[in-house]
Amino acid sequence: MAIATINPATGETLKTFEPLSEHDLNQRLALAAAEFETYRTTDFKQRAAWMQSAAALLDAEQEEVARLVTTEMGKPLAASRSEAAKCARAMRYYADHAEEFLADEPADAPAVGARRAYARYQPLGPVLAVMPWNFPLWQVIRFAAPALMAGNVGLLKHASNVPQTALYLDELFARAGFPRGCFQTLLIGSGQVEAVLRDRRVVAATLTGSEPAGRSVASIAGSEVKKTVLELGGSDAYIVMPSADLDDAVTTGVTARVQNNGQSCIAAKRFIVHSDVYQDFAVRFVALMEALRVGDPMDESTDVGPLATRQGRDDVEKMVADAAGRGARVLCGGACPDRPGWFYEPTVITDITPEMRIFKEEVFGPVASLYRVGDIDEALALANVTDFGLGSNAWTTDETEQERFANELEAGSVFVNGMVTSYPQLPFGGVKHSGYGRELSAHGIREFCNLKTVWVG
Q1: Is 425 within the bounds of a domain?
Q2: How far apart are CA 82 and CA 67, in angstroms?
Q3: DSSP character for 428?
Q4: In the predicted model, is pLDDT for residue 46 greater than 80?
Q5: What pLDDT sits at residue 404?
Q6: pLDDT score of 222
Q7: Rounded CA gap, 205 and 135, in Å?
Q8: Residue 70: inside a domain, yes or no?
C-alpha cells in the first residue's frame, strides 16, 4: 500500500509521501538509541511535565486533529473529537501515576538472607510500535504515554493510510518538550518492518493489527529474542439473557456494533440472544440499525461514515454475500450505497451456520450477526467457539449468571451490562488468537520494563 492520505468518503487521493530512505531510517534508529541513554536518566517529574504539556497541546488542537483523522480514515467527526480527548486523558493519567506504578517493590529481605531486597522496574530502550488506522491517535497514545513515562523511547510505524496523523504525533511530543529522539514516526512500508525489528538498536515491539501481521512480527521478534505485546483481532460476543434491561441492551448494542463505522477489534460482532427475548430484541435492534444515518463523516448528523479503505469495504461485502449465498437471512442492509466512497450499509444477518465465513472470521464493518440460544450453556459454548478472545459483553441482572460469564467467557475482558471499552485504569488485551500481553493500567506500563531483582547483603 502506498503511503498516502486517501479520503474514504470520496476515494480522492489528497497527499502522497515517499518512504524513508535507508540512510534516513538508519539516522532515526541511531538517534533513538543515543537519546535513550540520556532520557532514561530523567526523573518522573520531568517526564510528567512534558507529558502534561503534550496533553494540553492535544486538547488545544482537538478540532484540527479531529478533522485530520476523519479525513484520513473516515470516522464521524464527533468520534474523532472523542478519540483526541481520550488520548489527552490517558496522557495525564500516566503523568500522574507512572511513578507509583514503577516504584520499587520491597521483598522479604530476612527470608533471603539480605539486609535489603526489592524489585525495580527499569526501561528497556527503543520500542517499535506497529499501529493500525482504525483509532490512529488512541492506539498510538496508549503505547506512547506509558512507554515514555517509563523511560523508554518510541518508534512508530503507523498504517500507510494515516501518514499525516502519524506525523502530527511525531511533532506533538517534540513540541511538548520531549527530546527529539524520544518519539519518532518512521514513514516506511510494511516491507521495511522486518529490518527495523532485527536491528540491534530496537529492543522490543508492540503491534495492534491483524492476526497475520501479529504472527509475522512475533515470529521475527522471537527469532531475535525480543519482547513483544500483540493486540490482534476480535469477534466479540454480545450475550443477552432474559433478565436484561432490554432497552439498554438494544441501544448499547447498536453503538457497540457501529462504533468507528464498525471497524473496532472490540466492537460487538456476534449477538447471542436467549430465545425468551430474541424476537423482541431482534425487532428493536433491526429498527435502530435501519435508522442510522450513513453519510459524510464531516457532517455532524452522520452516524456511520465510510470504511477506511476500498479493500476493507470489499471484504465486508464479500463476507455478507458468502453468508447470504449459503442461506443466511439479511434482516436489514447488506449492500453498498450507490454513492462515491467506501460506504457499507448497517447490516443485521441471521440464520448463520458454521459453513459460512462470517461464523468464524472477524467482520470489520457495520455488520451484526444475530444468533438465538436456549440457555446460558448454549450461549457460553457459542461465545467461546471462536478462535478470538479479545472482549465480551453479557447482559443479565442475575448474579449467578454474571459470575458464570465472568469466569467462563474466554476473553481478555468481560463487560456485564455495558459496552466493552478500553480505559487507562484497566488492563487491556486478549487471549487465544487475539494476542498476548497487556496495555494500559499499571500492567501496561510494566510490559516494556526490566523487572530487576536487587539483593543487598
Answers
A1: no
A2: 12
A3: B
A4: yes
A5: 98
A6: 98
A7: 19
A8: yes
Q: Are residues 304 and 445 in the same domain?
A: no
> Given strand 126-130, what is the order of strands in its sheet?
183-185, 153-157, 126-130, 204-208, 227-231, 435-436
Contacts of 111 (CB under 8 A, 6+ apart): none
Task: Check: CB of residue 414 under 8 Å from CB of residue 404.
Answer: no
Smallest Cα–Cα separation from 66: which of 49, 78, 56, 52? Answer: 78
Question: Residue 111: which pLDDT band, with cuts at 50, 70 and 90?
Answer: very high
Computed over every residue of the chain, the mean pLDDT equals 98
Total domains in the chain come to 2
CA distance linking residue 443 with residue 137, whole number of Å: 21
Q: How many CB atoms lie within 10 A of CB 38?
A: 11
One domain for residues 292 and 199: no
**Residue 30: per-residue pLDDT:** 98
398, three cell numbers: 442475575
Residue owning grid cell 432497552: 247
With cut-offs at 50, 70 and 90, classify the pLDDT of residue 297. very high
Antiparallel, parallel or unpaired: β 392-395 and 415-416:
parallel
Q: Where are the alpha helices (DSSP H) in 292-398?
A: 310-325, 357-360, 376-384
8 A C-beta contact, residue 208 and residue 242: no
Catalytic residues: 231, 265
Contacts of 358 (CB under 8 A, 6+ apart): 319, 320, 322, 323, 328, 349, 352, 367, 369
> What single-letter amino acid sits at 448?
F
Distance between CA atoms of residues 350 and 364, nearest Å: 17
Give one word for 438, left, alpha or beta, with left for phi > 0 and alpha for psi -120 to 50: beta
> Same domain for 286 and 334?
yes
The answer as to whether 427 is a domain residue is no
pLDDT at 418 over 80: yes
Q: Is the pLDDT of residue 67 over 90?
A: yes
pLDDT, average across residues 336-346: 97
pLDDT band at 240 (very low <50, low <70, confident <90, very high): very high
Is the whole-model pTM more than 0.90? yes
Q: What is the residue type of 342?
A: W
Residue 112 included in any domain: yes
What is the pLDDT at residue 130?
98
